[in-house]
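Our consortium's second objective concerns turning raw sequence data into structural hypotheses that experimental partners can test. To show how far this objective has progressed, the report includes one record in full. It was chosen at random from the queue rather than selected for favorable results. The single chain below, 259 residues long, was entered without modification.
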Amino acid sequence: MLRLKKCAHELARLCTGLCLLLTFSGIAHGADVRIAVAANFTDTTRDLITAFGDATGLEAVASYGSTGKLYAQIENGAPFDVFLAADSRRPELLERNGLGVAGTRFNYATGKLVLWSPEPATFDDPQAWLESDGFSRLAIANPKTAPYGLAAREVLAGMNLWESLQARLVRGDSIAQTFQFVATDNAQAGFVALSQVRSWGKDEGSLWLIPQSYYAPINQQAILLSRSENNDAARQWLRFLRSDKARSIIESFGYETEH
């Protein structure tokens, strides 16, 4: 039995390694900087990469996903140079366990959580709507892997609605999938990032900018990964994130930055 368990563990490890190799072989070739980026920061990062290339002549490529899953990929050897998380906990853990370079971790953005529906006049009174029977599905990111999902759980718990809404919650693996649930009418509304609605390109529909007092601040941190400690292009990317140009782009998507 012990031998079977050991074989199963080794097989799982090999499968994980193969999946990582297949996933990242496309981005590993030719790029100066390879970035793991929290899903909420997708559209912002695309604009930042363009501006970074214009400013430095360097090429940055990004892979997007939930913070928890990207963290797991980094632990398993994914070939990233920089991690842009949607929280501070995972970058701090990477620094603590030696996978992140000490002293390179900083807040690059503070995210804002909203309750959103693409349909106008869906909820004039958000709390009354959440307490009503007027919807069948409410989208939320997985609180275990997505910081915006954790914030949404805090909001619902503070409103004493977390338990009563369990049967109607649709959970996305990432905040990007959560947004898609709402955008494709698979949920009447959902807790998403303000930046996603700003990137929607259509009318905002119904939007409740949730008061900051309802959830802990979503402090999104960046860190240089130890495997790329001597990668000057990666360090240039981190310096660029703190530039006036980068902060202007980040703020245009609805985030707050530190000055």
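The partners drew two points from this record. Residues 10 and 16 are 10 Å apart (CA to CA). The first helix runs from residue 2 to 28. Both points have been shared with the crystallography group to help prioritize constructs.
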